[in-house]
Amino acid sequence: MTVATNEDARSALRSLLRERSVRTGDFTLASGRKSNLYIDARLTTMTGAGQLLIGQLGLAALDDAGWRPVSIGGLTLGADPVAYAIAHAAARADRPLDAFTVRKEPKGHGAGRVIEGGFKEGTDVVVVEDVMTTGDSARRAISAVEAAGARVLGVLCVVDRGEGARESLEREGYAVRALFTAKELLAED
Fold first, then answer.
1. What local confidence, expressed as pLDDT, does residue 109 receive?
2. Counting Cβ atoms within 10 Å, is residue 30 exposed (0-12), middle (13-18) or buried (19+)?
3. CA 130 to mean position of chain CA atoms
4. Phi and psi dihedrals of 107, rounded to 5?
5. 32 in a structural domain
6. Between residues 32 and 19, which one has the greater pLDDT?
7. What is the distance, to the nearest Å, from the Cα of residue 92 to the centroid of all Cα atoms in its chain?
8. C-beta of residue 129 within 8 angstroms of C-beta of residue 158
9. DSSP letter string over 62-100?
10. ∠ CA 75-76-78 to the nearest 5 degrees?
11. Number of domains composing the chain
């Protein structure tokens, strides 16, 4: 799959998310909130096509924001394929960018790390998410990387559900970018 323009990539990713990831019904979200909308972005972010599109659009979003991180990552599991896709797109563009994963619990063996992968203490990072509702997963990742001495340039998510995460994180001093809002995914064509 080759997508020439970001506009075409955006259209293709929106279609893929709508087809694979958006469901309506009665759901309990990871935040504990009840909702009639469930967006399981992993059904898109863990596909080859989704990876290509997210990589292209994620890298463009970093550029649009003026962010030049050394590494990109977030709380496992939702952030992992997003970070890897963007790091891969950066490598294809001959730009240095590593990916990292923040564990939910420190590893019980070996070095006992909370942050794995291409993370270096004291560097600039961007925290990523697949879907943001409250921003708690992003906060956990931010807390871990800041405790390790990194500077968080901002938070990038694939889908912002529009339920307060962006506003909350921005009040805390973190810039937030989203490839899509839930409203954009649900809008009629």
1. 60
2. exposed
3. 4
4. -60, 135
5. no
6. 19
7. 19
8. yes
9. HHHHT---SEEEEETTTHHHHHHHHHHHHHHTT---EEE
10. 90
11. 1
CA distance 141 to 147: 10
38-65 pLDDT per residue, tens? 999 999 999 999 999 999 999 999 999 9
Q: Is residue 12 part of a domain?
A: no
DSSP letter (8 states) at residue 140: H
What is the largest distance, in Å, between two alpha-carbon atoms of the chain? Answer: 51
Q: Is residue 41 one of the residues assigned to a domain?
A: no
Q: Which two tokens stand for residue 43?
A: 């059904």
Query: What does the pLDDT look like over 167-176, one tens digit per residue?
Result: 999 999 999 9
pTM comes to 0.95
Tell me if the bond preceding 59 is cis, omega within 30° of 0. Answer: no
Q: What is the CATH number of the domain that holds 61?
A: 3.40.50.2020
Strand intervals (E) in the chain: 22-28, 34-39, 71-75, 98-102, 115-117, 124-132, 151-160, 176-181
Give the strand pairing for 34-39 and 22-28. antiparallel
Its sign, for the CA torsion 81, 23, 160, 171, is negative
Structure tokens at 66: 């003026």
**H or E element that contains 137:** helix 136-147
Encoded tokens for 174: 């973190």
